[in-house]
Every structure is written in structure tokens, then in C-alpha cells.
């Protein structure tokens, strides 16, 4: 941050920050009408308004938005203060009561981002999985006998082995290729890239909650029990 803008986090978000070219959607309320930072000049929450979407980093919005929102995470709410040069400058925005050379305050909540992630996972199915079969167990003989607790215990053992390894990524891939109940096992557990809404919510949330190179705790979805390694 610079003297041109600043950010105060009100509510922490999770997952990755948007990258240049991602389409983001925000709720925002702007303050600074008539040079009074207590006076609102506009809000996406006003009657007839709706969340605002834009392509970040492309100059479609004022600099404080482009730069500030790129530091936010999904679900984060922050107050961004913008100097005139990072807001509407010497011209202001008279239609909204923004005077020339006004410092403005924006209360911004990042609702979504089109940014994609990449992950590998190890899936252990159990009796509550929505599909009681896998490439390892085509008739589900073992899966149908396995409880959620059994599946979690298996994954706990895998986690211990991976954490003890000097090459966690390679060990993760080796275990996935031999033991994961997902078809991605043939690729060492690699699922490729995906974005919001393309995976089951619990799995998506678990992936976006970790940083690249990190491994999740055990995640439960309709498919079964997973551990996830974020790779991109």
C-alpha cells in the first residue's frame, strides 16, 4: 500500500486473491460526498442497484479499486481509502456529488472472482458416498463396508506419510495413483484447473481455503473423504 491508497480489513476472506484479467463481483458503498467522508454518494445496496462486476487490472475502474480489490480474498470486506489521484482526480464526479480533488472511502466486499485454481486430491470412498464404486473397486465390495471414520483414518495415515516426506508433491502423487478412488488417480490425483461452481461446494471451499503448495485437512463431500493439495 502507498500514501495514495490504504486498506483496512473489516472481515477476513479466504482463498486466493484475484489476478489481472479476472472478472470480480463486489458490493460497495462509497463515501465522500461534498468532501465529507461520512456522507454516502452511492451503494450497490441502494434500491434498484445490484452487485457490480468488472475485469480487474484493466483500467475499467478507478486505480484504488483495481489495486485494492486485487489484494482481497473471496468474502473479504475492507475499507479502502483513495487519494484524489487514485479516485476521480481534479475533475471529480459532480453527478454523484464528488468534488474535484476529493479523498474517498469505499466499503468493499469481494463476492466472487472468476479466477481458476488447480489441485490434486486423494479420494477415499465409503458407505455414504453417492457412487459406491471406483476404478479400484468396480463392484464397491470394500467401499460398502467402509465407514466415514474408516475412510478418514486411511487419509490420516496418508497425511502422516506425506508430511514426513522430503518431496511432498511427489509422495502425494504416488499415493494418489495407487490408492485414490477417483479416476484422477491415473494422473497422480491431478484434477487440472477449475473455477467457482465447477466442483462440489465442500471440495471447492476446501481448495480455495489453502495456498499453493499447501495440503488441506480432511474434506467431506458427496463423493467421499478427500485430502487436497493446491497446485495452482
Could you explain the architecture of this structure?
- The chain is of the alpha+beta class and 232 residues long.
- Helix content is 19%, strand content 27%.
- The protein has helices at residues 63-69, 148-164, 168-179, 201-208, and strands spanning 5-11, 23-31, 40-43, 52-55, 77-82, 104-113, 117-124, 190-194, 219-221, 224-230.
- The strands form two sheets. Strands 1, 2, 3, 4, 5 and 6 form a six-stranded antiparallel β-sheet that branches.
- Strand 2 and strand 3 (40-43) form a beta hairpin.
- Helix 2 packs antiparallel against helix 3 (168-179).
- The model has no long low-confidence stretch (mean pLDDT 94).
The global form is: elongated
Number of helices: 4
Mean pLDDT: 94
Number of strands: 10
Taken as a percent bin, the fraction of beta residues is 25-35%
Biggest β-sheet, characterized?
6 strands, antiparallel
Tell me the series of helices and strands, N- to C-terminal.
Answer: EEEEHEEEHHEHEE
Q: Which regions are unreliable across 5 or more consecutive residues at pLDDT < 50?
A: none
Q: Which structural category fits the helices and strands?
A: alpha+beta
Helix content: 10-25%
The gyration radius over C-alpha positions equals 23 Å
Head-to-tail CA distance between termini: 25 Å
